[in-house]
Amino acid sequence: MAKQTITVIKGDGIGPSIIDSAIEILNAAGCEFDYEYVDAGLAALEKTGELLPQATLEAIDRNKITLKGPLTTPVGEGFTSINVTLRKQFNLYANVRPVKSFEGTKARYSDIDIITVRENTQGMYSGLGQIVSPDGQEAEAKSRITRDGAEKIVTFAYELARREGRKKVTTVHKANILKSTSGLFLKVAREVAARYPDIESAEMIVDAACMKLVMTPDEFDVIVTTNLFGDILSDLCAGLVGGLGMAPGANIGEGAAIFEAVHGSAPDIAGKNLANPTSVILASIQMLDYLGMQDKAEKIRAAVADVIKSGDRTTRDLGGTHGTTDFTQAVIERL
C-alpha cells in the first residue's frame, strides 16, 4: 500500500511549534506518513505576496488530507478569511468540533463529551452580499440556506452519530424568528431525523441551547446547526472542557479534509516555547480516525490524557510550568 501523504500548513505565530509537536507524536506512534509542507497566511504573504498561493491549493487538492496550524488573515485590509476561502474552494461543507473532558484541566465540568457539527459554507457566516452604504450609516448582509446544504449537513451528523455509537442528535435553530432560513433548516432536519429511528432526535432554539449547555451540558451528545450558530456554540463547548487549547476541528468535504487547531496564532507567545499543542494533537487524532486508524488514534489520546491527568510537564494553561517541547516529550515517552 502506498504511503499516505499529508499536506502540512504550519501556519503563523505558534503554528510551527505546535504542528512540529503533533508530527513528532504521529511519528512516535508509528504512523508512517509522508509530509508535504506548504505555506499559507502571513508566512506565504511574505514569501509570495499571496495569503493562499496556488501551489498550496494544488497540494491540498492532490493529497486530500491536510493538517494545519492557525493562520492569520490581516484584519481590515480587504483580505478574505483564509479559512472561509478554503471551505468554499474545496466545498468543505462539514465542520466537526468534538470536545471531551480531560482529567487534570481546570475546566468546570469533568464529564463532557459533545460533538458540534456545523454547516460550513452557507448562512449568515459565509459573508454573502455584504454592503456598507457610501455614507457609512447602513450595512447589510445576506443569509442563504439551501435544502441541499441543510440535508447534507444533517445527514452527515446522523451518520456520524450512528458510526460512533452516539445516542442523540440535537438540531439547533432560530426558526421562531428567522422563519425563512432557519425555518427551512429545521424543516429539512425533521425530514432527515425521520430516517434515523435508531437515534433520539431533539430540537432547540439557539439561545435556550446556550443556556442549557452551561447549566446541564449532559443533555447534549451531537449538535447539528447552521454556520454562525455553530461557530459560537462550538467555542462555548470548548469553554466547558478548558478552552480552545483543548478543542480540535475538522473541515470535511467529499474530496478533501482539513484538520486544524481552532484557536488563533497567539503571536504574543510565538517562538517562546510556551504554547499548549493539545488542540492540534487532538486534530491529528481526528485525522487518524478519519483515515480509519482508530488504534493509533486511541493510543495517542490515552497518552495525552495521562500527561494532563498526571500534570507531568504540562503547559501553563493546564496549571503546569513547562513548554511545548517538554509536553511533547512527555506524550512521546508514554507512547
TrEMBL record:
<protein>
    <submittedName>
        <fullName>Isocitrate dehydrogenase</fullName>
        <ecNumber>1.1.1.41</ecNumber>
    </submittedName>
</protein>
<dbReference type="Pfam" id="PF00180">
    <property type="entry name" value="Iso_dh"/>
</dbReference>
<comment type="similarity">
    <text>Belongs to the isocitrate and isopropylmalate dehydrogenases family.</text>
</comment>
<feature type="domain" description="Isopropylmalate dehydrogenase-like">
    <location>
        <begin position="5"/>
        <end position="331"/>
    </location>
</feature>
<dbReference type="InterPro" id="IPR024084">
    <property type="entry name" value="IsoPropMal-DH-like_dom"/>
</dbReference>
<dbReference type="GO" id="GO:0004449">
    <property type="term" value="F:isocitrate dehydrogenase (NAD+) activity"/>
</dbReference>
<keyword id="KW-0560">Oxidoreductase</keyword>
<dbReference type="InterPro" id="IPR019818">
    <property type="entry name" value="IsoCit/isopropylmalate_DH_CS"/>
</dbReference>
